[in-house]
Amino acid sequence: MTIRLTMAFSDNPRVQPLKDGSVKPQNIELDCITLDPSTLFLRNLFHDEFDVAEMSISETLLALERGDGTKWDWSALPVFLSRGHHWPYLYVNTGSGIAGLADIRGKRIGVPDYDMTAALWFRITLKDLYGIEAGDNVWFNGRTKELSHGGALSLDKEGPRGVEHHWLTADQTLDRMLDRGEIDACTAIRPAARVTAGDPTVVDRWGGTPIDGNPRLRKLLADDGKEVVFEFYRRTGCFQANHHVIVQNRILREHPWVALGIVRRLPPLEGDGLRARQAHRPDLPLFRGPGPRRATRYHRRRPLPPRAQRDGPQRRAGDPGFG
Description:
Layout: E1 3-9, H1 16-20, E2 28-34, H2 37-46, E3 52-56, H3 57-66, E4 74-82, E5 91-93, E6 108-111, H4 117-130, E7 138-141, H5 149-152, E8 164-167, H6 174-180, E9 185-186, E10 217-219, H7 226-236, E11 243-248, H8 249-254, H9 257-264, H10 274-279, H11 291-301, H12 306-311, H13 313-318
Parallel strand pairs: 1-2, 1-3, 6-7, 6-9, 7-8
Antiparallel strand pairs: 3-11, 4-11, 5-9, 5-10
């Protein structure tokens, strides 16, 4: 029996063989849709329209916790599509007094969405490495209530407990606020092709702030966060994965074999270039320069987190700390 499924992913090379048909899941025909992650996750939360999809790990957990059975009835597969890090996009205002991550306590921080996985890892890292609690800072949500993932999860009605949290309006952007000193740090300074400040239809608005040569802005981590990632892994045995794969339970209740069929068709890819190989190694962070060699040496010394070494391969396959 062959079934047809709609699959939605970002432009991720790991799923390209499924999209171009060079890899075919047994007894599954796929209609593939490609979207940018912020739009894809927003549609997952607002419309819940795809049979198989890439999804934010933290937002999956929130959706499963808050679902009432009429939507977000998903199963999460142990396939981790996003292993890159957001540390290269962490910028501070030069007048903020922030010289390193330890100086972030008590500061005003801008994030695209407070509930997104990258922002969660940012808060976890501050706590585990520097003892900085989320409530020690003031947080600004770059996406509006209407177009944020947090808004879709009703966090606009019941915000994070014990935390001062503010929503930006469509006329505000995180880059302009950082440039003006209205926030001290921002985790996601990514220049866009056009200015979209004031456009209520754009999820991640950009204000057009010059970045290179701007005396008011500075990238906080000159190594793009490499040392932070290695230190976090050394202390916790956990790699900061961001995205995984969800499948509708209505599919799995009737065809439970679909889950394994998808997992088996999303293997690590082979590539001629070091960057291509590195991007699809679940145990290697993606950094420029000598990072792959150092990561390989480190993981040879400690190939798996302690819990996974203890619990064996079955536990490893489903442990969300991997990828």
